Amino acid sequence: MAKVLTEVVKEDQKTTELLIKNGLVFTEQGFREVTIKIIDEKIVSLVESEAGPIFEKEENIIDASGCLVIPGFIDAHVHFNDPGRTDWEGIETGSRAAAMGGTTTIFDMPLNCSPSTISLQNLNNKREYLTSLSHIDYALWGGMTGTNLNHEQELAQMSKGIIAWKSFMSESGIDDFQHLSPNELKNAMRAAKAHGKILALHAEWEKDIARLTAFNKQHPWLNERSAFLASRPISAEEKAVGYALELAAKYDTAVHFVHISSPKVVGLIEEAKMSGVNVSVETCPHYLIFDEEDFLREGALLKCAPPLRPRQEVEGLWECLANGMIDTIGSDHSPCLYSMKSTDSIWDAWGGIQGVQFTWLAMVDGALKRGVPLKQIFPLGTSNVADRFGIAERKGRIRPGLDADLVLICLDETTVAAKESFGFRNAYSPYEGRVFSTKIKKTMLRGKVIYDDQRGVSDEKMGFCLY
Question: What is the pTM assigned to this prediction?
Fold first, then answer.
């Protein structure tokens, strides 16, 4: 067989060709048996071909036999805490864990780093700091808060270097990232519209949460974990989403609701979407896998906001997903030191779940168990994210001209979420001990293998900022 890899010198440039053969490739036409041809960092063609034997000596060919070949996943919701709180995570370890889970692009949130990304200087400092530290590509969110909302010129400058805006409608838990009052949210809607950017919202109604938290803390005879659940009911989420949808319709703002936890709220968003509101909705794997009984048993390890819901809500979210009512899946990877979880009181524990490494193993596993077609699952972390956030000309699909970001997934091998296999900095996770029915075999970023299940994550850090 002739050598396919060619390094052709043309006008003093070296060109490297690579073929990926024998896999079942997820394309816009569905799963197809095609050969993917890559030149340098881009996909150049998809060629119909019959499967044939591949020999190890042909280093230019990746044999994907027995694997699904999927576009690299895009996680639009992570907190990697760099700079300032690298001991919680850091982009080096966060991106390593993401690559191990098949994610090739992340959007890093503007809070949990220190300082928060709420000024032009902080944004520029963060971008400079992250250079050459990431295993995968990334973009940065900008924070729109009660303290910077009136800095119109600065916000306009920031908008040119961010993927989108993020705001909270309830307390964020970070001192320098203030939430927006209902009146301030109106101005945020106007500003995001003027910048041509999406406004993502953590939507829980602060006054209700503050009142219920105070009430439940005054009843020490209640189980603390049950009291925490009672302090953040679905009604607080529904009220915040309803108010934000009214403003989005009024100001014609593109809005993205993050980590929605209830099918009732998803239905509210779907109604607005059908009426013409420019809105999208994200949920997270922990709302699709775990429930409130898991939280009552495990405690702070599964503390998040909004909190985990009853099992009927979990299955209701799966029905929403199966019916095409959920647009994206984000890990909401929000790590911290283990000491911040092992507190005496659940009220004092950090709220956040470490899971970026297991997002898509969990999603595929859950879909297979429920009979939800994988062709319906994968766009939630690929093309849907790319389309919504304006990077579809580079990411999100296996198509000629796009970056060769690819994941090889084997459905015939299992993955055990063992502590020694964790890629993130602090080795704990509610996924520990779970057995997933699939395995990530390889992750490729722009034509290079950055993770292999036999050799681990490459030492090379070739991730760069998209903005």
Answer: 0.95
